[in-house]
């Protein structure tokens, strides 16, 4: 089955064509084409995503990308998968409108996909991660979400923990801004942290590890961001690389400890980490190190680096699962839901 994916929830316009086989038991995917138009240059001068500018860019980019996608194979697809939430509603509507017109023109069914379900499915792209055993636990870390999700199967999700305020990617972005780094802040902050060296230890920076000892699986990152603000205010000569490193250490330590606490309780066979922040090298290293040191019988999967950020291939993969269940939505019933939950 060939699925055409469409993703416009935030500041990346994505269109992809994915071939899917194997059913729910043994799903396999081949990415025929995955196109992403990034809007970094448009939003960078504003230090963050401007929803109306993003909407306009999606409107402009979608037909251009679709034209690029069209080829010998791509005029044929069996279903259209489109992100309907969560995200910025004006942006989501652009993708929905485009999906509606394509479905009508080609007389194909539409599946509505939750963007976070797309991130979960992103670990299946790249061709080597097919054998996911359930129950699985997923740590979803992006610019809008920080969630621990218990998965009994594909499309069978239960959130067991989440952030009470800022998402971890959002905290990276806000702290990056405080440090004078360009948008998007997460990767820039991580690069700066790598520049910190032993000499910087003289600054002796210690930030809090919010909620690290709480009994639940929830998170909080807004206090950590404020602690960085105060550290900068109280010590103008502070080394920014050292501060970036301590912030990253703190955020990642909380993610790792909380995830392992949830592993202890729910005893999953598989651990999945997905979302934009899954690209963070320190998170990957610390999580694997801790799992190995505790000798946990747990297989851990991260998406391939090129599929950690927003893309339409992951939406097509999640769309396949819906299509298998014949979970189609009538085009006129499609609706953008900015706050859609898993
Ligand atoms: O999943 P994503 O592309 O979009 C959302 O669904 O939000 O995630 C974007 C987030 C941004 O906050 C970005 O700063 C963060 O992921 N991010 C990173 C890294 N790469 C992207 N955060 C920390 N370290 C990175 N290497
Ligand atoms: Zn995302």
From TrEMBL:
Cofactor stoichiometry and binding? Binds 1 Fe(2+) ion per subunit.
The entry marks the following residues as binding Fe cation, namely 115, 119, 310
Q: Which Pfam families match?
A: TsaD
Alphabetical GO CC annotations of the entry are: cytoplasm
The family database entries (SUPFAM superfamilies) matched by this protein are listed as: Actin-like ATPase domain
Which of the seven top EC classes does this enzyme belong to? Answer: transferase
What family is reported? Belongs to the KAE1 / TsaD family.
Which HAMAP family does the protein's record reference? TsaD
Q: What does this protein do?
A: Required for the formation of a threonylcarbamoyl group on adenosine at position 37 (t(6)A37) in tRNAs that read codons beginning with adenine. Is involved in the transfer of the threonylcarbamoyl moiety of threonylcarbamoyl-AMP (TC-AMP) to the N6 group of A37, together with TsaE and TsaB. TsaD likely plays a direct catalytic role in this reaction.
Q: What is this protein called?
A: tRNA N6-adenosine threonylcarbamoyltransferase
- To which species is this protein native? Candidatus Niyogibacteria bacterium RIFCSPLOWO2_01_FULL_45_48
Q: Write the gene name.
A: tsaD
């Amino acid at each position: 089955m060939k699925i055409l994916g469409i993703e416009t929830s935030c500041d990346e316009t994505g269109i992809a064509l994915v071939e899917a086989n194997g059913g729910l038991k043994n799903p396999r995917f081949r990415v025929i084409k995955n196109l992403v138009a990034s809007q970094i240059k448009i939003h960078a001068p504003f230090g963050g995503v401007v929803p109306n500018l993003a909407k306009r860019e999606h409107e402009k980019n979608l037909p251009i990308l679709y034209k690029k996608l069209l080829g010998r194979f791509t005029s044929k697809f069996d279903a259209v998968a489109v992100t309907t939430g969560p995200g910025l509603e004006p942006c989501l509507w652009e993708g929905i409108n485009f999906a509606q017109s394509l479905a009508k023109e080609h007389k194909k069914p539409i599946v509505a996909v939750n963007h976070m379900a797309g991130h979960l499915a992103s670990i299946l792209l790249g061709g080597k991660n097919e054998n996911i055993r359930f129950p699985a636990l997923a740590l979803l870390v992006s610019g809008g979400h920080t969630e621990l999700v218990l998965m009994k199967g594909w499309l069978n999700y239960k959130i067991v923990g989440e952030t009470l305020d800022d998402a971890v990617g959002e905290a990276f972005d806000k702290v990056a801004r405080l440090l004078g780094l360009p948008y998007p802040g997460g990767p820039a902050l991580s690069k700066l942290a790598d520049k910190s060296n032993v000499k910087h230890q003289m600054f002796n920076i210690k930030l809090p590890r919010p909620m690290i000892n709480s009994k639940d699986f929830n998170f909080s990152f807004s206090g950590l961001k404020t602690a960085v603000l105060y550290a900068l205010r109280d010590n103008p000569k502070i080394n920014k690389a050292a501060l970036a490193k301590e912030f990253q250490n703190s955020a990642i330590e909380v993610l790792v400890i909380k995830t392992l606490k949830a592993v202890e309780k729910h005893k999953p066979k598989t651990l999945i980490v997905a979302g934009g922040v899954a690209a963070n090298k320190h998170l990957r290293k610390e999580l694997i190190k801790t799992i190995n040191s505790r000798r946990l019988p747990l297989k851990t999967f991260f998406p391939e680096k090129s599929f950690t950020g927003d893309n339409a291939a992951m939406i097509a993969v999640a769309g396949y699962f819906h299509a298998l269940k014949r979970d189609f939505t009538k085009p006129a019933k499609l609706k953008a839901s900015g706050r859609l939950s898993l």
